[in-house]
């Protein structure tokens, strides 16, 4: 999975266009409209690291921990097994909205945070990594940074990205993957603003492919590595499918 400070994702379409993997101290943004497969790609990557014995911290902002666990189970990931092995944890940045909640929503939740508290967000991420002695290994997933765009003005959101990258990716050599839904103009503009900060930008999209033999259309997901510091990569759109427990490249037929 890793060699000389590099790590492979263990996801077929990504490994095909990142043949040497990515630098372990990378902060990488997966950007695309809603429904283009970003979160499932992140879960697929997490699956590969967990199977290799590396810890995964999932910072849940878009959904509650129980829903996140169910999404992992769709990939045949036995979350309880990895919790027992002390490899899987959730930082819950969603449940602060639930009134009257007294207990953590799932046994995987290691900390709860209010994303409206900028210092708490940064300090909690650092504390979790330090308490678990996660350095030179593992993965932090932030799904998604749109939550911060809705709370903070742009400059504060950018400063948050800079602090997370500096204190986690660079200082602790822990790879950070985050999703950004670019369905709005503000999110698209934000991606442009942070492109020089992030170590990698991976774009996702869906296309509708008409069928020659019927009136039905096929919806196909694609990804593109637009930027990746320090490693070779192919800059081309790669079609892929998400199947149970696997993400597969789609091989074009007859050159199409």
What does this structure look like?
The protein is an alpha/beta fold and 256 residues long. It has one domain (2-248): Rossmann fold. Helix content is 33%, strand content 28%. The strands form 2 sheets. Strands 7-6-5-8-9-4-10-11-12-13 form a 10-stranded mixed beta sheet, with helices on both faces. Strands 1-2-3 form a 3-stranded antiparallel beta sheet, with no helix packed on it. A hairpin with a 2-residue loop joins strand 12 (238-243) and strand 13 (246-249). Helix 5 runs parallel beside helix 7 (154-172). The longest helix has 19 residues, at 154-172. It is globular, with a radius of gyration of 18 Å. It starts with a strand and ends in a 7-residue tail after the last strand.
Counting helices, strands and paired strands, the structural category is alpha/beta
Shape: globular
What helical percentage do the residues reach? Answer: 25-40%
Low-confidence runs: none
User: Superfamily at the CATH H level?
Assistant: P-loop containing nucleotide triphosphate hydrolases
> What CATH architecture do you see?
3-Layer(aba) Sandwich
Kindly report the CATH topology: Rossmann fold
Give the CATH level 1 class: Alpha Beta
Relative strand content: 25-35%
**Lateral arrangement of strands in the main beta sheet:** 7-6-5-8-9-4-10-11-12-13
Order of helices and strands: EEHEEHEHHEEHEHHEHEEEE
Number-wise, the strands total 13
Discrete helix count: 8
| Largest sheet: number of strands, sense, barrel closure | 10 strands, mixed
Mean pLDDT: 89
The end-to-end span amounts to: 32 Å
Structural domain count: 1
Radius of gyration: 18 Å
């Amino acid at each position: 999975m890793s060699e000389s400070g590099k790590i492979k994702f263990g996801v077929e379409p990504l490994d095909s266009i990142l043949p040497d993997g990515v630098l372990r101290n990378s902060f990488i943004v997966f950007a695309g409209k809603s429904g283009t497969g970003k979160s499932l790609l992140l879960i697929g990557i997490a699956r590969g690291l967990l199977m290799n014995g590396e810890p995964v911290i999932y910072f849940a902002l878009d959904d509650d921990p129980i829903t996140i666990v169910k999404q992992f189970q769709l990939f045949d990931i036995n979350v309880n097994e990895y919790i027992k092995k002390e490899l899987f944890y959730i930082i819950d940045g969603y449940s602060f909205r639930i009134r009257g909640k007294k207990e953590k929503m799932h046994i995987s939740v290691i900390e709860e945070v209010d994303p409206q508290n900028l210092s708490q967000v940064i300090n909690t991420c650092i504390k979790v990594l330090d308490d678990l002695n996660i350095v030179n290994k593992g993965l932090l997933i932030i799904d998604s940074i749109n939550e911060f765009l809705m709370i903070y003005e742009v400059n504060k959101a950018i400063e948050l990205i800079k602090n997370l990258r500096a204190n986690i990716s660079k200082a602790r050599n822990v790879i950070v993957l985050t999703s950004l839904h670019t369905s709005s103009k503000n999110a698209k503009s934000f991606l442009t603003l942070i492109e020089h900060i992030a170590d990698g930008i991976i774009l996702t999209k869906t296309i509708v492919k008409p069928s020659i033999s019927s009136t039905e259309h096929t919806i196909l997901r694609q990804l593109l590595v637009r930027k990746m510091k320090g490693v070779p990569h192919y800059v081309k759109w790669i079609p892929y499918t998400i199947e149970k427990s696997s993400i597969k490249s789609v091989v074009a037929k007859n050159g199409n």
